[in-house]
Structures are given as C-alpha cells and as structure tokens.
Amino acid sequence: MMKDVIVALDFKNRKETMAFLEGFKEGIYVKIGMELFYGEGPEIVREIRKMGHKVFLDLKLHDIPNTVKSAMKSILRLEADMVNLHASGGSVMMEEAMNACREEGKKPLVIAVTQLTSTTEELMQSELLIDRSLTETVLSYAENAKKAGLSGVVCSALEVPVIKEHLGEGFITVTPGIRPLDSAAGDQKRIVTPARARELGSDYIVVGRPITRAEDPEKAYREIKKEFLGV
Ligand SMILES: O=c1ccn([C@@H]2O[C@H](COP(=O)(O)O)[C@@H](O)[C@H]2O)c(=O)[nH]1
C-alpha cells in the first residue's frame, strides 16, 4: 500500500501558493481545499497538476444525490488524483458519486469524510445530538462508504486500527489532525504525531500549518515525511 504525506495548500491565492511550491524541487502530494479553490477557481487544480504534483481535491461534497452526481462529473474533468465527499450525506449520495465516475470512465480515489478531526464526542453529544460513540459513528460511516464502492475515508489516525480491522488493510485511511510534538493543536482535537500515525497504520497523513507556517517549510516537510515513513 502506498503511503505519503499530503500537504494542505490552505492559502488565500495563487501567488502565495506558488511562492510556497517554489521551495519544492520534486513533485509532492498536495491538497487543494475550499479556500484556494473558491478563491482561484478550477484552473488552479490544472496548473498545480501540470507542475508535476499529485492533487487531493478536498471539496467535501454534501448535497442531495442528484446534485452530488452532477458536481462530481464537473470535478472529474479536473483529473484530481483524490476527491472526497461527506459520508453523512448517506449511502445513496455516495453511490451516485461513484455512478458519476463510472459514467465518465474516471477512477480517482474517492473517499468520504467520517467525523472531522476538529470534532469531539462531547460536541457530537451536546450539539449534534448524536448519542453513539465517536468511534462507532466513524466505523459506521466507513462501512457505508465501503459498501457504496468508495476507496477509503478521512478520519483521525486514532480510528485507523478499528477501520482496518473491520474493513481490511486495503481500505484507505487519509488522516488529518497531524501535529509534530512542538506544534500547536489549533482547532484540531483528535491529533497524533506523524510517528504515531505510522504506528496506527495511516495510509496518508494530511498536514497543513505545521508545514505551511514553518520557518523552513521544505525542511518541515522532509522531517515530517521521515517521521511518518520511518526511513
Ligand atoms: O476531518 C478533517 C478533514 C479535513 N481536514 C483538512 O485537513 C487540513 C489540516 O490542516 P492543519 O493545518 O494541519 O490542521 C485542513 O485543510 C483541513 O481542512 C481536517 O483537518 N480534518
């Protein structure tokens, strides 16, 4: 199974993004999220791919099944390597996203967000009125995603062992909420270090601020990658 570090390009515009990417001589795996995509439009995805980087397009689709299917068809034209939706949109919504891929003949990795890594069990119970445990809901969303034909899920590394145990090693886990020992947690709640993510069996770690806000981002990237891959 391929393992890698995905850098979250949470920048407000193309200029800042390109200044950051200039520090990287080789192609890396990057994540384009809502801030950059909404600010710059689809062209930014094409441009970054042309530069030789792999792209996880993190738009977290969540709408009625028909709308998600149509949106997915538009997204597929951008040829991202990985795309995602919210598992809480339900099984039919996820199946329609996969139907879009089939009809367009495209095979990106399609993954579903389970519970955001900024969410705690306390918040689920007090605000979202979900009375199951966090782990139970993550596993249930992951099971639905697998049944709908998706390749994997976004979750915290803390939930990777239970997902792999129930859904198999081949079901991909993409884990944000990564914080090296000296990094501030910020708004993230379910956090682990890159080394712990490796021990727990994450396939991909997603890292934003600990790299993008580092004094030397390229050095921070190399150190995190080394800690995660263990080589
Ligand atoms: O559950 C989730 C889903 C997505 N994210 C995204 O990952 C990065 C994390 O950035 P950091 O700066 O390392 O916190 C960010 O783009 C989120 O939108 C997530 O954190 N948790």
From TrEMBL:
<feature type="active site" description="For OMPdecase activity">
    <location>
        <position position="58"/>
    </location>
</feature>
<dbReference type="InterPro" id="IPR047596">
    <property type="entry name" value="OMPdecase_bac"/>
</dbReference>
<feature type="active site" description="For OMPdecase activity">
    <location>
        <position position="63"/>
    </location>
</feature>
<feature type="binding site">
    <location>
        <position position="31"/>
    </location>
    <ligand>
        <name>substrate</name>
    </ligand>
</feature>
<feature type="binding site">
    <location>
        <position position="209"/>
    </location>
    <ligand>
        <name>substrate</name>
    </ligand>
</feature>
<protein>
    <recommendedName>
        <fullName>Orotidine 5'-phosphate decarboxylase</fullName>
        <ecNumber>4.1.1.23</ecNumber>
    </recommendedName>
</protein>
<comment type="similarity">
    <text>Belongs to the OMP decarboxylase family. Type 1 subfamily.</text>
</comment>
<feature type="binding site">
    <location>
        <position position="179"/>
    </location>
    <ligand>
        <name>substrate</name>
    </ligand>
</feature>
<comment type="subunit">
    <text>Homodimer.</text>
</comment>
<feature type="active site" description="For OMPdecase activity">
    <location>
        <position position="60"/>
    </location>
</feature>
<feature type="domain" description="Orotidine 5'-phosphate decarboxylase">
    <location>
        <begin position="4"/>
        <end position="224"/>
    </location>
</feature>
<keyword id="KW-0665">Pyrimidine biosynthesis</keyword>
<dbReference type="InterPro" id="IPR013785">
    <property type="entry name" value="Aldolase_TIM"/>
</dbReference>
<dbReference type="InterPro" id="IPR001754">
    <property type="entry name" value="OMPdeCOase_dom"/>
</dbReference>
<dbReference type="GO" id="GO:0004590">
    <property type="term" value="F:orotidine-5'-phosphate decarboxylase activity"/>
</dbReference>
<comment type="function">
    <text>Catalyzes the decarboxylation of orotidine 5'-monophosphate (OMP) to uridine 5'-monophosphate (UMP).</text>
</comment>
<dbReference type="GO" id="GO:0006207">
    <property type="term" value="P:'de novo' pyrimidine nucleobase biosynthetic process"/>
</dbReference>
<keyword id="KW-0456">Lyase</keyword>
<keyword id="KW-0210">Decarboxylase</keyword>
<dbReference type="InterPro" id="IPR018089">
    <property type="entry name" value="OMPdecase_AS"/>
</dbReference>
<feature type="binding site">
    <location>
        <begin position="58"/>
        <end position="67"/>
    </location>
    <ligand>
        <name>substrate</name>
    </ligand>
</feature>
<dbReference type="GO" id="GO:0005829">
    <property type="term" value="C:cytosol"/>
</dbReference>
<feature type="binding site">
    <location>
        <position position="10"/>
    </location>
    <ligand>
        <name>substrate</name>
    </ligand>
</feature>
<feature type="binding site">
    <location>
        <position position="188"/>
    </location>
    <ligand>
        <name>substrate</name>
    </ligand>
</feature>
<feature type="active site" description="Proton donor">
    <location>
        <position position="60"/>
    </location>
</feature>
<dbReference type="InterPro" id="IPR014732">
    <property type="entry name" value="OMPdecase"/>
</dbReference>
<feature type="binding site">
    <location>
        <position position="208"/>
    </location>
    <ligand>
        <name>substrate</name>
    </ligand>
</feature>
<dbReference type="InterPro" id="IPR011060">
    <property type="entry name" value="RibuloseP-bd_barrel"/>
</dbReference>
<dbReference type="Pfam" id="PF00215">
    <property type="entry name" value="OMPdecase"/>
</dbReference>
<comment type="pathway">
    <text>Pyrimidine metabolism; UMP biosynthesis via de novo pathway; UMP from orotate: step 2/2.</text>
</comment>
<feature type="binding site">
    <location>
        <position position="117"/>
    </location>
    <ligand>
        <name>substrate</name>
    </ligand>
</feature>
<dbReference type="GO" id="GO:0044205">
    <property type="term" value="P:'de novo' UMP biosynthetic process"/>
</dbReference>
